[in-house]
Amino acid sequence: MGGIWKCLNISRREILNLCCGFASGRKEFTCKLLIVGGGTGGCSVAWRLAKKFNDKDIIVLEPNKVHYYQPLFTLVGAGLKEFKHSHRPTRSILPRNVIWLKDAADEFDPCNNVVYTACGYKVRYEHMVVAVGLKNDYEQVIGFKDALDNPLLPVSTTYSPDYCQKCWCCVKSFRGGHALFTFPKTPGKCSGAAQKIMYLANDYWRLNKIDSLTNITYNTAGNILFGVSKYAGSLQKIAMNKNITINYNLELIEVTPREAIFMDSHGQIIYLPYKFLHVTPSMSPPACLTKCEELAVKNYLDVDKHTLQHTRYNNIYGVGDCVNTPNSKTAAAISKQSYAVACNIWQTMYGKKPSVKYDGYCACPVLTSFKTGILAEFIYDKIPHETFPFDQSKESRIIYFVNNNVLPYIYWNKLIKGKWNGPSRIRRIINPLRR
Length: 435
Known about the structure:
Helix 3 crosses helix 11. With 435 residues, this protein is α/β, with parallel strands linked by helices. The chain is globular. 45% of the residues are buried. Strands 1, 2, 5, 6, 7, 8 and 21 form a seven-stranded mixed β-sheet that branches. The N and C termini lie far apart (62 Å). It has helices spanning 2-7, 12-20, 40-50, 72-77, 90-93, 144-149, 164-173, 192-207, 229-241, 287-290, 331-349, 397-415, 424-430, and strands spanning 28-36, 58-61, 66-68, 87-89, 99-101, 105-109, 114-117, 122-130, 135-136, 155-156, 177-183, 214-220, 244-247, 250-255, 259-264, 269-273, 276-279, 283-284, 296-297, 300-301, 316-318, 362-367, 373-379, 383-384.
């Protein structure tokens, strides 16, 4: 088939144009600001800038009809929340005066201020915010996707809306044996979520009196349990108290119906049987970004880590999981990132240098039971930056309440609407002695 198109001298983009049909007859859009991606970062920036622009000056390029609050997937997987609470229609969470182009970016052409979409549209922009997020690379582990799609296998992940409900089914139906949880070497979304589902599953099995029949193992491809030593030490103690075995430098390479196959740092292959398997998949930005050498370095959008302005193109900014800033990729990071991007891109539009700096703030709540949790908060250089006037590395019922009740409210009503800049003001009130 490809040979026929080559003979006809038709490009891939022209093929897409023909396939999509262009029912509207319109092939090109022009805007002052293009936001590529309607996830947490894209929505927050859109809301922050929508009031400053006229109608139709902003285009949000987003293919998904549904917007997900991804941190809730872990609670769905543990039976604490219903799946219906994790998502809302995309249109309902976007500002009314922006154009929502229900399509995906296919190719960036930053030299000409153009983005080509999957259906062949051309979008011209004056300024652009890239917020394309990360995708799950299931194919990095042989047999993993087939195991996820097989309802008879106790293999799941809470890093996807497609499989978090299966995780809860697997947790409920587990009757003892070896429960195995994994974490990959490549960076991805919220590393704490991989441990959170493990602790919650453990507590569910304890409450149902099958913990004495259960062995839990956590295999991480890294050499530490958590990126910040203060919280890593606390989590190690928690895991030890729960009789959870932690193995380091083990990368999952294959999943079979009965075994998970790992490779250690020396290339040795290790086979582990399981009765329950939760896998944190490898992740990467989508192909539209990774194949654009002008924008990406090592697959991630190359931005200044403080201003979030692209290092080569002054009219391009990035926000969220797809940027190469050295912070943990959590929803909490968006609060300060989106504020910085909105302020700085507005200054850039008027010929000024960006002045607002992102300090690398992120927060990672890790529930350790159905009653307790810890809250890791830190900035660049892995420096703890806590909000509450107590040691947040210690298990607390307050953290559990905040994670289950306060954070979802902040997300839907404040964060994605550009009204939440992080807990700085709260910190100054309740914890004035900490910076």
